[in-house]
## 1
Amino acid sequence: MTQTDADAQFDLECRKLNKDFSGFRAVKDVSFGVPKGTFFSILGPSGCGKTTLLRMIAGFQEASSGDLLIKGNSMIGVPPNKRPVSMVFQHLALFPMMDIEANVGFGLRQRGVPREEIAKRVETVLARVGLPGVGSRQISQLSGGQKQRVAIARCMVLEPDVLLLDEPLGALDLKLREHMKIELKTLQSEFNTTFVYITHDQSEALVMSDQIAVMNHGEFEQVGSARELYYAPNTAFVAGFVGEANKFTATVDAAFGDAVTLVTQDGMELKGISPVAKMQKGDKAEVFVRPEAVRLATEADKFGGIENLNTGIVENILFNGANSHIILREEKSGGEMNVAIPQTGEFRDLNKGDKIFIGWEAAQTRCYAAGA
Amino acid sequence: MTQAQSRLGLYLLMTPLMLWLLLLIIVPHIGMFLVSISVKTGVRQYVTGLGNYMVFFTEPLYWNTFARTAFMSIAATFLTLVVGFPVAYYIAKLTRGRTKTTLFLMCLIPFWVSELVRTFGWMILLRETGIFSSFLQYIGVLSGPVEFLYNDAAIMIGLVYTSMLFMVVPLVTTLDSLDDSYIEAAYDLGGNGISILREIIIPHAMPGIVSGCIVVFMLSLGNYLTPILLGGKDSLWFTGLIYSQFITRFNWELGSAFGFLLLGLSSAIVWAGLKLSRQSLTDTVGR
Amino acid sequence: MNKILSSGIALLAAGVLSASAAQAETLRLLTWGGYAPENVVALFEAETGHTVEVTKSNNEEMVAKLRATNGGGFDLAQPSQDRIAGAQAEFDIYKPIDLSKIDASQFIPSMLEATKGNTMIGSDVYGVPHVWGTSGLVVNTAKAGQVKDYLDLCDASVAGKVSYRLKRPTLIGFAFSMGLDPFAAYNDEAAYKDILSQVEAKLIECKSNVKTYWGGGDEIKNLLRSGEVVAAMAWDTGGWSLNADDADITFVAPTAGALGWIDTFAMPKRGRADEAAYAWINFVMQPEIAAMITTAAGNFTASQGGDAGVDEALKARYQASFPQAAIDNIKWYPTVPANLETLEGAVLDRVNAAK
């Protein structure tokens, strides 16, 4: 470990990282860099390889090929107990045989830090996570959220270059999870340490992260900010996985630049854009329209010159407060659509069977080559 | 009505246990106790008293034999733990599925034959003209035959071998329940093999260690065949003393007293062991 | 169902039959290995209609078993003649033998009389003789021909290649070899204690010579056969059976005298099949049956003329080990007084514990 790259741009960098299990590649050619102080999330469905990737960063698994650098130093061949990273485990893995002080002080004890200093630093870090004076308590006496904070304190007391978090909120109930999202983000900015967070829950990733990598089948589909992923997904997978979307399978009828006209299987005509690939007539495409991009109106002329304009019959109303939706059936083609209800009160009295106009912009109608 | 019925059911369920306890444990022990407190004064003449117990404390031979037996049993227990722990760890943590079952079965194999046959097996291996001695001569380590049998080391080997399963089973059970993520977390936080063993694995396995140790200690202390057959000229074992009092000396009174002393003293040692390891009997045996 | 029914009827019929016949009994025999060989049992069952259940044991266990059941569970036992009177006095486990039911003409008269005398309490006789033998030395003559007496086992020339039991015959044998007479001191506790203490000192001194104290007959045979032990104190039959495989190993009557024992027939107090027990005694004492038992057990019996039909090879071994002078020198165990074994036990424990 030389310090030549001490001023490296990235706290964590992966270069063409691969991991092969017998007959199957779990992680494929993954390359990315995480700048210092970033909250970086890896988002993907279960089985996408994100856990393997995290375990490679922690050192529990050896990379099959490629390089992995922390603060510019290659970590290949460095065992987990020698890496400047710490990990918060899915079920936290707080040691039940020790009290909280011993848990948090574990890493410092391994480093041979003098006893008084351990006590001091443990107390300091516990105070920073908002749990001063709990040192002598047993793990079983803590609530779920407190355990979470202790687990983070146990890692942060070692001042790691990178903190890895393996879906630590998965076991919490919904309310606490919402609360912990905010708290984790606050803790991260307070410690100003690079967090690498893996999750299959997009709202966790969207709320907390500075940067998100969407992973699928062992590969990174797209890396970007929450906003970029949401509004400008690069692939059909990202468009479908991040946020909600109405998905259509359609055939290109005409293309001009990135503007395309398509016809769905049900015969509905769509105008959209193809942000990634050039499309030609006859190409199969997957089309995504977000429920909140669809506007509702009782009269057709309220939309002005909107590109996609249709009528629909309300089939079902899914009332969920601020997050309410209607399911409606498009009249001409009979295709089903999910539309968010604006919270202006305008459509409060909408009923099943009502006929309503729907319209959305071509720019919000994103097309991707099918099967890509 | 239903309550009465369920109570009846409970009694019925408890009957076999109660009968077992009463007929096979409590009644014989009362009988033995009554025998142990009758002191022989002449031919077919007995008085009630603690004379038989006093013999144990006044005759250094008996006292020393008990101390020797207890000491050797503790040593055998410790050795079994040292040998059994890595085996149990390997089975619990490093294997899974079929391999695990196979390895577990391999620990069981010695128990498919009787203790007598097992002990004779060791005699064949260890005797002067036995396999071990012949092999060492063959490969040139020894120049002449060496007797490995008839000494305390042979007893130790026999006891450890016999007790192995009773140590491995509780250890595998407790180690199995140790979540791998604790070990990984400790490793991640900078722990090494030794500190993880000391701070994570052993504290977690403590109930298994203690219950295994209790069983192995009791089995070793109460073993009769192994020390008698493998031991040498000086190898007195307390159960051997009890046997000779009952069978060759016809002295059931002293034999019964020895039996109770063995029960009491071994319980005392187990109690001391529990206190030292800060475990409770319910924690360890009640799992 | 039919099977159960028919077997039930069969059982019932058997019960009726046996009740009407009134003689067919089950004889529960507590004996030594070889004393009731299968061929003899088969002949007996065929001739008398009784059935025999054999339990193999030894002197100490016989007493322990009968004591535990207060003299029940067996119909006929075969303890050594010196162990009857003491056990009877202490535990009351036998009943007197009805000599009128025994065919005295089948016994060697001197042995019958001696056994009756030794097992008599008051005017009741508790044992009649069956098999006799000796214990002495079994020696590998090629490797340890110099061993002629018990004390020779302590000689440096056989250091580490010697074995004997830690039991009372060893105490007695060593005492004779040391020029003492323990049998004469049996009824004088002080004198006997004095003898024991001398023997104890000798045995402790001799301990370093011993490879191991043997426990079972097979164990000592293995040790001698493998050559790990070259001289041992053991039974004559053991020596002779080894001699059949290896001509170098044989039984040697010690110069101080072999120790002679006689195993008897004794009737447990609560035995039920007395008829069968007397029938068995009279049956096995016939000369030709006695010869079959000698062949199986290796030891001669108290049957008059019973040695006539014995295998010549065994006879030859017997004669080689026992010239007339050696026979005359056999020390027959007298009755062991009660309590004597407690003294001996303490000595044996101390020898065992000594370093």
## 2
Amino acid sequence: MVDSIHPPAEAPGIDVRRGPEPVRPRQRGWRPRRRNRYVGAPLVLISINLLLFVTFFVWPAITGLVYSFTSYTGVGTAPYVGLDNYQRLLQDESFYAALIRTLIFTAGAVPLTVLLSLGTAVLLVTPYTKGKSLARVIFFLPWLISPIIAGVIWRWMFGENFGLVNYLIISLGGKEVPWQSDANLSLFVVIIAAAWGGTAFNMLLFVAALKNVPTAYYEAASLDGAGSWDKFRNITLPAIAPTTFIVVLLSILHSMKEYALIQAVNAGGPGTANNLLVQYIYTKGFERAQIGYASAASFVLMLILMVVAVVQLGMNRRKES
Amino acid sequence: MALTTSTPRPPVLRRRKRPDAPGELSKKVWATAVMWLLVVVYGFPVLWFLLSSFKPAGELFSYPLTFLPEQPTIKGFTEAWTRFDVARYFLNTLVVALSATALTIVASAACGYALAKYRSWWLKAFTLCILATTMLPGEVLLSPLFLVVRDLGLYNSLSAVVVPAVITATGTFMFRQFFLTVPDDLLEAARIDGSGELSTFLRIMLPLSRPIMLTLAIFSFQWRWNDYIWPLVVLNDPNKFTLQIGVATIVGAENVNWSVLLGASVLSMIPLVAIYLLFQKYVMNADINAGLKD
């Protein structure tokens, strides 16, 4: 599965600018000699990453899997409990609540982020707009701001009895909106904040893809009398499809793991109404020291992320063929 | 008139370039208007935040709210800097971000180079392993990763934040893609001249990759500066807190001290905004080819 993440990543849409790859036929001739001659140098070169990979990915992945079958609390022994953790997890209502909240958050934030990043990217690339250089800086500003600070900024905007938004609503004759104490409105604020913060990076990817669409296509379409919308739908969208795929996939994976932003906007509140999956894992593992149980929850989250990736890759394949 | 000005140009070109055709003009107006509306949507929250941070505590909540601070003050900043230890958090974050960035560049450049210029089955396998790390991010392995760091005796030290962050798929692949574009002839020529493999890397290849280094430096600095959950898990001593944890502590308080919170938040944004404004082109032209976020 990881293997197949590669083709879209190196799709021509992003790669065109890099110039030609090293000449293939010659390389093939060199290959056998190389394989035998150079072992030490590449091994030294990858040594740091290799060491870190084993220590901080392989080791925790294995211990995590092992601990998920125990009732380990971080100290003392780790009694084996079989599938007990997983069974308890699947019967825990607060786990399902967190899962559903995470899915709602993802369903809200991802389409909004993708639309906004594509929209801003198009506006920054099209020749019709004026003042691009300043606009680009402003659009990119949220990337520089950490999720915690972004959360604080939107919390300040949507404060229930001090925020600018409610002040404006009241000034216009409306009633105070409970942005903090209503669970759904509270999640809405987080979605807005997530889309605001997630736009910049994806916009960068879209801008690169849009710049690589051959202009000859547009010229040909213009001669045929195609309108802007036709051109966008029939030329631009298919041409940037590989990038769109990456953006959607990364945005989904990213939203499923959201933690810092929601922590700053409302700390998963009101109460525990907006606890997302990572919050659930964090609470169980670090506040209640149920390492075994939290590890089981982590693996369920990982399984969900993998399913998302596989389903998306499958859909992408089918569309392409 | 039209005839005299446009005779040298081929007719097709002229039609495309003429900006004042009625349809074109209205398109320009609309597109520009939409773009600037979005600029306001994206920029205004930050502007409002910034202006609010200069308001004295009493003015923050007094209706009617004013756009500009009536009695501008920097008390929020000074109080955050001194009484709320923001100075210390700042220093800790700087240590973490700078050392992690330096190490990330060294590790990614070396590994990316090896993956691009040498061929063997184990290098191919390792390429896949690096890609797999994007599927197993820190958040997913939170508790077992914490145990590993604890067993290594790193708990509650800044190196616990730095060391696991050094390996990044994005950085490694940035360098790999770059070195793939460097012709193999260069490497062969160095070999014929009797240059050792590692010294070829250090003396010829590494200097070539300077633009990638700078791009990755900016990215890595941003990742580490803005990190929250991992430092939160491995740091326990308030003296070792990073800025993000510090700010989150102020947000998490029973009664949020907004004046200090605004000051601390604005202070924490300054370094990244400054770096971005200085090195803008390295970020905007970045070839984040695999598009992997960290």
